[in-house]
Amino acid sequence: MVSVSLSTSKPTTARADALVLGIRTDDDKDVFGPSLDAIGFTGERNQVSSFPAGDLARVSLVVAVALPEEPTAEDLRRAAARGVRAAAQANVTSVAVDLHPADVDELGAVAEGVALGTYRYEAYKSKGKDKKKAKAKKHVESVVLLSPFARQVAAQDALDRAEIVTGAVNVVRSWVNTPPGDLRPPMFADAIAEHVGTQGSPVKVQVWDEKRLARERCGGLIGVGSGSDAPPRLVKLTYSPAGATQHIALVGKGITFDSGGLSIKPGASMQTMKLDMAGAAAVVGATVAIAELGLPIKVTTFACLAENMPSGSATRPGDVLSMRNGSTVEVHNTDAEGRLVLADGLSLAVEAKPDRIIDVATLTGACMIALGELTAGILGNDDDFRDQVFEASKTAGESMWPLPIVEEMKEKVNSSSIADLRQHNPKPYGGTLFAAAFLREFVGDVPWAHLDIAGPSFNEGSARDYTPVGGTGVAVRTLVQLASELAGSAG
Q1: pLDDT in tens, 234-261
Q2: Residue 404 has what pLDDT?
Q3: Which residue in 339, 356, 440, 477 is the catalytic one?
Q4: What residue stretches are annotated with the Cytosol aminopeptidase domain (predicted)?
Q5: Binding residues
Q6: What values do phi and psi take at 68, rounded to 5?
């Protein structure tokens, strides 16, 4: 991970290979104005332009990044990532960044943009291939943020918070990017336990194997995982700091590979189905970050891990599964497996007696049809809590949008002729709402929010701003922000 530090140096005296300079108005051009005019820098939205610094500064390269006159924290976060990524193309190893943040919170947003924008996943890149090319290619190793209040204690606190939060996001990205054959449910459970650590960690870990899951009546996890020779797992994390007055439960869908089961997907649709564990990865990453930040809020987390595969032992359409809470579910489509494992996780979450529950899942393609590829849906049984999550997402800079659970869906969920609940929508409309209505059956009266991250969890296109190709780590920042607010420690 790139090293990020603070300095009160001026842009012209900063020591680095390159300078990223935010331009809001002509006043920001300062000594670089003639050069910016010469390269045709107009300041239009998202514009990035580079030029040699010459004798104007100690750096060798200046990267000018356009900003609105009154940028939001998210504007600064994205601009920092754009600028540092542009500087990296020039093969530099050190960068100074001056985006003129107005306060320490904005300075923290800049630090987040830097750390998120410099993420790389190279675990499977051959280190021995084309050694000359590999030797020539450099990466940004250190970034210094320029600010007149860089020496303030609060500024360092903001930097430390940014490091913890972005570190969690990047761990989640790497888990999502891991080839599915190398992160099957038992392997993922081991990876979570290793990430949490055991020596002195404030987060406690329990792993339930398939035998324990059967004893605990987790029929959703057992049913979904029955087609795979890699058995399901449930990982429970508990963070209980002294003085906590709030308790949230987090539940994540962790399908390490989704073939669709016997309702098998088309081959092309399976290519990226390693992403189907992004929800479980997000709740784990957020839990560890909340603990590292020392937030005074209790967190109980359930990562529901299974591999959805077709075989002679796989669950069939028409089968009936018994969930942890005693409800029976008639299966209609084995490719709607996520709601089945979440049903067990949500039931366990209710038993933990939290004040609120949030689940995160790459649940429905219908949510992508409704909101596109970049925006997550927020649904729930409590409008006030749903709206609180929405506000936290805006503060965190993650694109989400509230959706309703219309009451007609309850009738559909309860329409099975042989079981308590029907697993899949009988009509091809409102799939996101039906899935949320199904999950609502397992949360009782506890205020609950459901994040459908099917679209923004994975980027199949080109890298943009701080979003890399592949896993994005979406929802981690929103969950940490929400926990901060509930604990009374936002900022």
Answers
A1: 999 999 999 999 999 999 999 999 999 9
A2: 97
A3: 339
A4: 333-340
A5: 253, 258, 276, 335, 337
A6: -65, 160
The CA distance from 208 to 323, in Å, is: 16
Residues contacting 302, CB < 8 A, separation 6+: 234, 235, 236, 249, 250, 251, 252, 283, 345, 348, 349
pTM of the model: 0.96
CA dist., res. 36 & res. 435, Å (int): 52
Q: Is 265 a catalytic residue?
A: yes
336 close to 421: Cβ distance less than 8 angstroms: no
Average pLDDT over residues 332-343: 98
| Predicted pLDDT of residue 491 | 45
pLDDT at 304: 99
Q: Which pair of structure tokens corresponds to residue 460?
A: 């199949």
Burial of 283 (0-12, 13-18, 19+ CB in 10 A): buried
Distance CA 287, CA 143 (A): 27
Which structure tokens are listed for 350?
Answer: 């209710």
* Domains by residue range for the chain, with CATH: 3-151 (3.40.220.10), 166-486 (3.40.630.10)
Tens of pLDDT, residues 63-109 = 999 999 999 999 999 999 999 999 999 999 999 999 999 999 999 99
Binding-site residue numbers for Mn(2+) are 253, 258, 276, 335, 337
d(CA 201, CA 370): 41
Query: Measured between alpha carbons, how far is 458 from 474 in angstroms, rounded to an integer?
Result: 9
What is the reported pLDDT for 216?
98
Tokens of 224: 């979904």
Nearest CA among 122, 438, 93 for reference residue 253? 438
- Provide, rounded to the nearest whole percent, the portion of the chain with pLDDT above 90: 93
pLDDT grade for 180, boundaries at 50, 70 and 90: very high
Helices and strands, number each (H, E), in the chain: 16, 19
The residue among 334, 354, 373, 325 whose CA lies nearest residue 474 is: 373
Contact yes or no for 213/232 (Cβ under 8 A): yes
| Joined tokens for residue 110 | 């800049």
DSSP string computed for 388-455:
HHHHHHHHHT--EEE----THHHHHHT--SSSSEE-S-SSSS-HHHHHHHHHHTTSTTS-EEEEE-TT
Cα three-residue angle 408-412-413, rounded to 5 degrees: 115
Alpha-carbon gap, residue 259 to 285, rounded angstroms:
25
339 is catalytic: yes
* CA 99 – CA 145 distance, rounded (Å): 9
Q: Which of 10, 58, 265, 410 does the annotation list as catalytic? A: 265
